[in-house]
Amino acid sequence: MATLLTGVSRGIGRGVARTLASSGEPLLVTARDLAAARTLADELGPHVRPFGLEVTDDGQRRALASQLVDSKVALSRLIHNAAIYERTSTPETAARTLATNVFAPIRLTEALSPVLAADARIVLVSSSMGQLHSYSSAMRARFEGVTTQAEVEVLAAEYLAAGGPDGAERAGFSRDAYSVSKALLNALAQAWARQFPKRLVVAASPGWVKTDMGGPGAPRSLAQGVARIVEAATTTNVRSGAFYADSDPFTR
Ligand SMILES: NC(=O)c1ccc[n+]([C@@H]2O[C@H](COP(=O)([O-])OP(=O)(O)OC[C@H]3O[C@@H](n4cnc5c(N)ncnc54)[C@H](OP(=O)(O)O)[C@@H]3O)[C@@H](O)[C@H]2O)c1
């Protein structure tokens, strides 16, 4: 049984790969720059296999899945780490943000379903920016009441149709595309836990971490952020469907 981890070219993904590889268990690492994944795999050892994957590219997702089917890989763990954070939330940047941060994990999980164990653990690397404080109470209730992936996709489509920050706010969402993307991921964890009761689905925030995304002023070191995601991926003491914010203990 193997783990597949996206976005290992830098930041938290690369750190999580290094820590998980130290167990010696099979690890599949993906980066949109195959050379970056190869360099990391060469450093970590023969149990680490590199793949090129632009997570938003359907052809690449399917090609990866068929390679894994052909090589009879079975995945016990899937960690959706790759994501973007854009400073603006125009309709274009919002579409790109949701494509990368929400639809890519959904479609990649679907593509990998032939090789994903029935009781696989799925980790959605989320953010405390995905909390629902700034939402209208009606919209918050819809997020909190989600029971299916389809409902998550409807919420995503409604947000994108709102046409930018002002429309998003009028519709009851956060103004910020990244925040909405992570709120949708948290709702997705809740939905998948219901739809796939044998799976363990965890959404977890690494906290605000010094990476290219978090910037140099972030209070947490890379090691702290990595440790948090490794814990989300390995501890047995988690509740499927839950979102664990920056400092929430991983308890049931
Ligand atoms: N850092 C923080 O403070 C913080 C806080 C809360 C949550 N998070 C979450 O933690 C995770 C990792 O963040 P980070 O800080 O390590 O970010 P980062 O340093 O910006 O790294 C992002 C990673 O995602 C990859 N990626 C982005 N778009 C991709 C795409 N379309 N296809 C394939 N790979 C793609 C990047 O690959 P390239 O090198 O090819 O661009 C890179 O490996 C993300 O889910 C982020 O939302 C981070």
Q: Can you tell me about this structure?
A:
The two termini are 25 Å apart. The protein is built from nine helices and seven strands. Helix 4 packs antiparallel against helix 6 and helix 6 packs antiparallel against helix 8. 46% of the residues lie in helices and 15% in strands. It has a single domain (2-244), classed as 3-Layer(aba) Sandwich (Rossmann fold), CATH 3.40.50. The chain has 252 residues and is α/β, with parallel strands linked by helices. The protein has a seven-stranded parallel β-sheet, with helices on both faces. The mean pLDDT is 97. The longest helix is centred in the middle third of the chain and has 21 residues, at 91-111. The radius of gyration is 17 Å and the shape is globular. NADP nicotinamide-adenine-dinucleotide phosphate is lined by residues 7, 9-13, 31-33, 54-56, 81-84, 100, 125, 127, 205-206, 208-209, 211-214, 218.
Task: Provide the β-strand percentage band.
Answer: 5-15%
CA distance, first residue to last residue:
25 Å
SS element count, helices = 9
Here the CATH topology equals Rossmann fold
Descriptive key words:
252 residues, Rossmann fold, seven-stranded parallel sheet, 9 helices, binds NADP nicotinamide-adenine-dinucleotide phosphate
Please outline what is shown here.
The chain is α/β, with parallel strands linked by helices. The protein is 46% helix and 15% strand.
Indicate the topology:
Layout: E1 2-5, H1 11-21, E2 27-31, H2 34-44, E3 48-52, H3 58-70, E4 75-80, H4 91-111, E5 116-125, H5 137-144, H6 149-161, H7 165-171, H8 177-195, E6 200-204, H9 222-234, E7 243-244
Parallel strand pairs: 1-2, 1-4, 2-3, 4-5, 5-6, 6-7
Helix pairs in contact: 1-9, 4-6, 4-8, 6-8
NADP nicotinamide-adenine-dinucleotide phosphate (NAP) binds at residues 7, 9-13, 31-33, 54-56, 81-84, 100, 125, 127, 205-206, 208-209, 211-214, 218.
